[in-house]
Amino acid sequence: MTERNGYQPGVPCWVDTWQPDADAAVSFYTQLFGWEAEDTMPRGVAGKHYMCRLRGRDVAAVASRPEEAPAVTAWNTYVWVDDVDGTVARANEAGGSIAKEPFDALDGGRIAIVADPSGAAIGIWRPGAHKGAQLVNEPGAWAMSGLSTDDTDGAKRFYGSVFGWDYESFGLGDSEMTLWKVPGFVGGRPEQPVSREVVATMGPPGESGDAPPHWGVDFWIADVDAAVQRAADEGAEIVAGPYDIPGVGMRRADLVDPQGASLSLTQPPGVD
Q1: Can you tell me whether residue 174 is helix, strand or coil?
Q2: Residue 56 CB contacts under 8 Å (≥ 6 apart), including other chains
Q3: Angle, to 10 degrees, between the axis of helix 84-93 and the axis of helix 152-163?
């Protein structure tokens, strides 16, 4: 399913990035993905908020970093919930912490940011007029978010308690990969090799092991090699790849945008 008009509770539904220079960031991403961008920040409110679209449908947002936000440039993932304040309370009870207290969004929704016990931050969102990503799982759009952590047991307890996620874990070389699932959810694409109930992934820290536990985002791209060259020309740091993912017919690269936000690009099977 590539076009969507809302999600069910417990499903990641949106991604955005808060950047020191939102204008420069949106220039980078519109060139990388072919997005159109519109500054939707209300008149009289400081900063920029660019709604990014593909074929006229919302896919992500690039915004100025709020003054009270942590001084870390990153891509943020938001999970759809019916009750933001109740979910924050469950996160506290499960050993997490509040990175940003619940607040009312401009579109009538409500948002909070919590951190799991290892410190990885994730957004909680009860949408208002805006219903999340309208286009996913196709080149130029967000496809999946993944948790990178060495506390897998703690994460399984935390996210199960907070969002009701089930999981399936399997060996991947010397490490373990986990697929997070929301029972009854139908996402992804019919031809994918994993259950369409999968809503996120979890794996070990990167090879360097220097990055703290965090949530990352993956975007599909039609030609990952060309995209990596384009990103490098625009000042991105190429961390790894492009490399082939054994057994699944995908090709991926990991990079850091010019202002420090990490992301991955994946060329899905059948796209040349």
Answers
A1: coil
A2: 36
A3: 150
d(CA 41, CA 22): 12
Residues in the chain: 272
- Provide the whole-model pTM: 0.94
Q: What is the pLDDT of residue 208?
A: 43
Phi-psi region of 89 (alpha: psi -120 to 50; beta: other; left: phi over 0): alpha
Three-class DSSP category at 225 = helix
Mean pLDDT across 173-182 = 85
Backbone CA torsion sign across 115, 86, 145, 184: positive
Domain annotation for the chain: domains and CATH numbers: 12-126 (3.10.180.10), 142-267 (3.10.180.10)
SS3 call for 37: strand
| pLDDT tens, residue by residue, 31-66 | 999 999 999 988 888 889 999 999 999 999 999 987
Residue found by looking up tokens 């399997």 in the block: 170
Closest C-alpha to 224, from 171, 172, 158, 271: 271
Are 211 and 205 a contacting pair, CB within 8 Å?
yes
Chain segment 77-135, per-residue pLDDT in tens: 999 999 999 999 999 999 999 998 999 887 779 999 999 999 999 999 999 988 999 99
3-state secondary structure of 29: helix
Under 8 Å between Cβ of 216 and 146: yes
Q: What percent of the chain has pLDDT over 90?
A: 72
